[in-house]
Amino acid sequence: MSIDVSDDPVQFDDVTGSEADTFPLPRAHGAAVSNHLADVVNPDADRAADRGTLYDRALTYWREHVGDVEEEPYLAVEDFDADWLPDGRYALILTSSRWKAGTGTGDDYRAYYEQHLKLREYDVDDGELQLRKPPLALHVEIIPQFEQMVYKSGDPLECPYGEGTRLLGWTTWAEDPFEIERRMYDALRAVYGPGAVDLDDRVDEARRLPKAEAHIRFDIDKKAPLIETLDQSKALIDWGGDSQIEAHQKRQKEGWLEWVFTSDRWHLLGFEPQRYSTEVKVYQANDWHRKPRSYYAHHPKLEASYAGVDRGKLPHVSEWDDVLEHLRTVVATHARWAGIERSDLIEDDYFDGPQSEPWDFERPTGRRQMLKRRYEDLSTDIYREALKESTTAVYDILRVIAEHDGANYDALEERTGLARSTVRYHVRRLAEEGIVYRKGNPVMVYFVSEVVLERAREILREVRPEDTPEDRDGRAEERRERREKQQEDADDDPGGTGNENDEDASSTGGTGFEYLARLSASIHDVAYLIERDQLDDRDVRVRRDDLPPPLR
Predict the structure, then answer these.
(1) How far apart are CA 372 and CA 186, in angstroms?
(2) Are 312 and 420 in the same domain?
């Protein structure tokens, strides 16, 4: 499922190729299929219920059996059985939700409600059903598609496949889209009757894939090298062109890092270009640390997924193999790069782990050369920053981060003697250059990888070979004394002359200060920009006279 992609500022064609490789087959996980049924039997019907669509049948069922959202979830089928279900007792429940379109305008606007069928596993306790979401999930959405429908804004609803019923089926552990459709149809027929779905009404062009996932479960000891490998991929993609990247890392428990990264430029690493963004994540169960190491849920998963497209149509169900090939290649390749072997895989109820069948794929090559070029560029940046003639501030900041394998703002302020605003300013610049990254709350500052950390240590020793800890402590003390002297001088001149005068500074067209009331921004905008490090301590003033106690 490849497309042409426009040229990026940096391409790796000279170092990137591929080679045949074999890895245990990553398991297909969550996926979804959408359908459209052109099932309007009587388009001129006076009543909606007489149009004959599956949506109208579902709405009539809700009115006759439920009638009030307070009665939801409604137990539609208590003993649901299908040959694709694992052992257990299953039920189908029914809920509804307000949809984005309806009829009428203004005060007369009335939204349509989509219908939801959901699979639940249950036990009976004291005569009552105890419902729970099973590992093999199923959720079917039944959505109206009628030309007279409008959004609340009054804009018309587009029906690209004509009038009828739109179906959206979400499930887990399905190896092909036809299995997803079969599960969806089984649930619909169990609730609304054997004739609920007529496949002759199905529009083949509308059979699309809104979501697909592939994953492996691996030993927790491999989590750190895998996350470093993914960090490297993120840095290479960002370095290689104008990538659209969303990434976040969130520390949930001590020692547990959830890593999520979305990009549309994986081709920069040698993967086949795609017309959709691919998300990669590493995650674990919320209570993994309470489970013994021998239990599979103690160990993390590596997953690649896609969820929709930015432009054009969703992939057709006939493209399923291409989509899964790409997702599995991303998973297997990063596992290889991180040194994850067959013996490192963990078996669970749905993934065979080391016993998974072998899978042949084309693994992109040239990563070592890419990283070498990237680190050469970063080395140049570190040299330039450490050798600044105008100040030793950046050198001292880099030195603290290198010596301690990372540092927070308090440590950087204490060890360098620099003002907090100066520390934040330089750290922000270094992060923008890709030398360091910031993580957590309170913020910790790290070099972007172990390789860069080691290279930074070499460079810092090289540029100032005579520098000693005593020298650095002396510079820090001099900075603190200088700032204290400046503060004393400011206290002796409370009037604030020269550019310290708000009116004079703003009237001269310089970079002075202005009253917040005269700006289009609010105090909340200022707080937001400070939080994102787009403003720092030097950009905001507060009057000292008559301050509330917390600000004195």
Answers:
(1) 54
(2) no
